[in-house]
Amino acid sequence: MNWSKKIIACAGVVLGLASFAWHSAFAEPNYPDRPIKLLVGFSAGGATDTTFRKLGELASKQLGQPIIIENKAGAGATLAPSTMAKNDAPDGYTIAAATAGLLRYPYMQKVDWDPMKDFTWIAGLGGYSFGLAVNSDSPFKTIGDLIDYAKKNPGHLTVATAGAGTTMHLLAEALAGMAGAEITHVGYRGSAEAGTAVLGGHAMATLDAVGTILPYSEAGKMRVLLSFDGQPSAWMPGVPTAKSLGYDLVYPAPYGLVGPKDMPPAVVDKLYQAFKAAADSDEYKKLLETLKQTEWQKAPADYQQWAREFYVSERSLVERAKLLR
Predict the structure, then answer these.
(1) Which distant-in-sequence residues (6+ apart) come within 8 Å of 12 by Cβ?
(2) pLDDT in tens, 11-43
């Protein structure tokens, strides 16, 4: 072996050992030894923010370090995880909430990240139910009233959601498309702002997580006209499902936790175990009931497989909403 080959071989060994040491350092048993940052792609006050604040609070007790929530809304709730994927080390100290938008937004906009290549899928943690509601003094008493108005007045019906590219936005556009109506979508930076817009008369309807709109309904401030569950919900008596009216829009939307790609398996497992314990707790299950969310858990490998399959299926919803780029 000549000297140049020896140098190349030695360099390869050194690089290999450095890579092993770098990953091993992150996988040491003392992880975590400092606070963890959890990015949430919605503004404070909505169902997603409330959900992940509680999960972070409970998981921090398992990890022995605080989990600090940082709200970073935008880009269909993908700004938070995509920023993390591009800027943060895969050391477990920056993680992000993942909603269905992460597996949908690339069909709608050109992005510089790949949902299946640029993330570590850590844990599936729960799921949303969705509903469409109007102000309690709205002239729309039924979903039929609302759709009739939208058909007769193209573009005049304003529907507020927690942001462009979110599941709520897609469902609103898909429903309008199936009904042969035209709406004007108004995207806000979060559910709280969308709800305020409807209450203040700045938008005529909102489509959001049931846990967000139901308190308004129970307080007599909103009227729920439609749900997107597979079956009628006990907590929304008399409210029809989209499916029961002939619209193929049964849509529970799971959410979970992701990190940057190439996270050490030991760190992933530690995070998964902590957040699984949080999701299994009575305190969290009580919150799920309050927010009318569903129990839905996936371990890392299963969560990644689900994400791969869901990514393929999401294209059809984007097409039905006529938002495919």
Answers:
(1) none
(2) 444 444 444 444 444 455 789 999 999 999 988
pLDDT digits (tens, 9 = 90+) for 1-13: 454 444 444 444 4
Neighbours of 302 (CB within 10 A): 13
Instruction: For residues 231 and 238, give the distance between their C-alpha atoms in angstroms, rounded to a whole number.
Output: 12
The token pair at 9 is: 């071989």
pTM for this structure?
0.77
In terms of Cα–Cα distance, which of 131, 191, 198 is closest to 166?
Answer: 191
Half-sphere exposure of 111 (CA within 13 A, CB side): 25
